[in-house]
Structures are given as structure tokens and as C-alpha cells.
Amino acid sequence: MNGIASNPNFALDIRQAQAAGKLSKNAPLNQKAWETAQGLEASFLQTMLGTMFEGVKGEGMMGAEATGQDAWRGMMIEQYGKSLAAKGGIGLAPQIYREMLRYQESAPNVAQRPQS
User: Is the pTM of this model over 0.85?
Assistant: First the structure.
């Protein structure tokens, strides 16, 4: 999905969120759900950062009329979003993770559904 996938520290991240009170103490460790939640937070942050950079004209090392500047800026914003989410973000990932687990627990088991 993104650069956050295959996070070897997912269990530590979840335990830190539990210690901070962002997740219940008995929340299960689900690596795929946690990585998906972080990916969604990163995507949200990328959108927010992209909006912030919309009015910024090319300056600095790339100059005012640098070729490909928008493409590089897009990649920079993508990495900013991933980095922010991986370092704790703004607290969306624990909420998304909690809701994913809640939905998963309440959804009927697919194997038990009648086939039509």
C-alpha cells in the first residue's frame, strides 16, 4: 500500500498507543490492520500537506521555473505524510485501528453466510 507497510515495530506502536490511552489495554495486535490504519493517516496527511503547498511557487534550489518541480514536490509531500504517520501522526491511526477491529468483531463470519 505504501512505505509504512511491513512495519517491524507495529507491536511497539500499538503498545505505545495503549499506554497513551488512545487504545484500550486489551486491543489485539493485528499487524495488517495497524499498517492499514497508518496508511490511511498518511494519506490524510498527504492531502492536508498538498493543500498547504498549492500556492507556493518554485523557490530555493529548484528556482522559479524548474522543470518537473511539481512532480518532485508531490513526492516530497508523499514522504512527509508517510514520515509523520510513522512517527505517531496526529492520532488518527489509533482511532482508525480501533474502528477497524470493532467492525471486524461485529461483522458476521463470511464462512457462516449462506451461499446464494
Answer: no
